[in-house]
Amino acid sequence: MSTDQELKELVKEKYGEIASQSREQNASSCCGGTSCCSPAVDYTIMAEDYTKLSGYVADADLGLGCGLPTEFAQIKSGDTVVDLGSGAGNDAFVARSIVGEQGRVIGIDMTEAMIEKARANAEKLQFTNVEFRLGDIEHMPIEDTIADVVVSNCVMNLVPDKQKAFAETFRILKRGGHFSISDIVLKGELPPALKNAAEMYAGCVAGAQQMDDYLATIRNAGFTNITVQKEREIHIPSEILINYMSLDQLSEYKKSGVGIYSITVYADKQ
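The structure corresponding to this sequence follows.
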């Protein structure tokens, strides 16, 4: 993968495949792909448990997240919430349970199959204040200063131009609005074999930034009061890693101190 467009097409292809499967089927691959690791390995090592959150819809939960951004998002009744990379609608429906009938939720996803799945879920639930729009997070199909809150779950790490994506997030937020975003970041450099693995990129981590760079990207987009609300190290089993490196490389990697982390980040638009 050498260009941003090729990376986007890869992600769309992989997540299009995921949209056609159940959570149980997706659990046979490391991060929602279809061939990147042993069927015995459950990719939900990245995900967290949504089932106790108000508004949870099992049919919308494909297990693709790496945090619970809505839990930290300080959403209020009547808010307009935008969910970036909304998938089958999981976070959007949780947000909807908080904003209530007077609020509004807009999900954006660049994968047509995911949009279709999310819309079908919303129709089945008879939600009239939740909508899903097909679009690119780097060029959002949404008006300026519309959102009180933006949420996103393990999606920004898949976007090639993160600076543009956060600039777009800033654009759609109202003054005084904020975001809460869960994502995958790195501490230390991943081995080249991992960074160049297409399946790993589409699934989870090879598109992730260094944590300090990620926070700097947010700051450069104009956000203030940037706070890491939660940090959790991700331990990827050797059964997955051995698909991308030799035993010697795996041993060196485990000794290196390099870490893969799920973080949930808050920031304000003043």
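The mean pLDDT is 85.
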